[in-house]
């Protein structure tokens, strides 16, 4: 009986050149999100996320107040008008948080995956390439230590925004 051939320590994918275009690799996507002016807000700290959200709320607040004045019952009740306009203004920051959360969640899924989906020339030729072990380890480290804290900050911010909306809506009903 012949002896079995020794199996190499490295998977075949590690010995082959990477067919995934550089711009479609998960780590490159991480670098792009990290350098983007919009997606970098939650990356550094919670304050780095809160300041632009408050600014966006303050920018949209006059518009929501103007729209709220279109309601006859609110026009005659100033405190209720202010609260309704403020609550309506929270929709924009909440949508911004949702967009950021979707982008970072997609990145985390790609980093945690054992294979990379990519397209060489267009939408019709989707390919899958198994990540080498070294890539998987590096991607897992980035997903765990860089992306996970960002997602936690975004979830906290969304919870705070939703709570503010609920409190504001309750206050508006109480007035």
Task: Report what the structure shows.
The protein has 175 residues and is mostly helical. It has a domain at 45-117 and 125-168. It is 69% helix and 6% strand. The protein has a two-stranded antiparallel ribbon. Strand 1 (115-119) and strand 2 (126-130) form a beta hairpin. Helix 2 runs antiparallel to helix 7 (91-112), helix 4 packs across helix 6 (78-89) and helix 7 packs antiparallel against helix 8 (133-174). The termini are far apart. 21% of the residues are buried. The model is unreliable at 1-15 (pLDDT under 50).
Looking at this protein, list some descriptive labels:
elongated, 8 helices, mainly alpha, 175 residues, 2 strands
Biggest beta-sheet profile: 2 strands, antiparallel
Task: Kindly report the oligomeric state of this protein.
Answer: single chain
**Shape, per Cα inertia axes:** elongated
Whole-number mean pLDDT: 85
SSE string: HHHHHHHEEH
Biggest sheet strand line-up: 1-2
Task: Give me the secondary-structure topology.
Blueprint: H1 12-15, H2 26-35, H3 41-44, H4 46-68, H5 72-75, H6 78-89, H7 91-112, E1 115-119, E2 126-130, H8 133-174
Antiparallel strand pairs: 1-2
Helix pairs in contact: 2-7, 4-6, 4-7, 6-8, 7-8
Question: Summary?
Answer:
The protein is mainly alpha-helical. It has helices spanning about 10-15, 25-35, 40-45, 45-70, 70-75, 80-90, 90-110, 135-175, and strands spanning about 115-120, 125-130. It has a domain at about 45-115 and about 125-170.
């Amino acid at each position: 009986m012949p002896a079995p051939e020794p199996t190499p320590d490295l998977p075949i994918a590690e010995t082959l050149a990477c067919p995934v275009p550089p711009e479609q690799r998960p780590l490159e996507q991480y670098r792009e999100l990290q350098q983007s002016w919009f997606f970098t807000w939650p990356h550094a700290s919670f304050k780095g996320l809160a300041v632009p959200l408050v600014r966006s709320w303050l920018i949209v607040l006059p518009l929501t107040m103007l729209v709220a004045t279109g309601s006859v019952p609110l026009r005659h009740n100033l405190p209720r008008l202010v609260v309704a306009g403020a609550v309506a203004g929270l929709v924009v920051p909440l949508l911004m948080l949702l967009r950021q959360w979707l982008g970072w969640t997609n990145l985390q899924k790609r980093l945690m995956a054992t294979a990379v989906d990519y397209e060489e020339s267009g939408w019709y030729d989707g390919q899958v390439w198994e990540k080498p072990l070294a890539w998987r380890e590096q991607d897992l480290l980035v997903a765990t230590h860089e992306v996970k804290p960002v997602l936690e900050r975004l979830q906290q911010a969304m919870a705070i925004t939703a709570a503010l909306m609920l409190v504001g809506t309750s206050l508006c009903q109480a007035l």
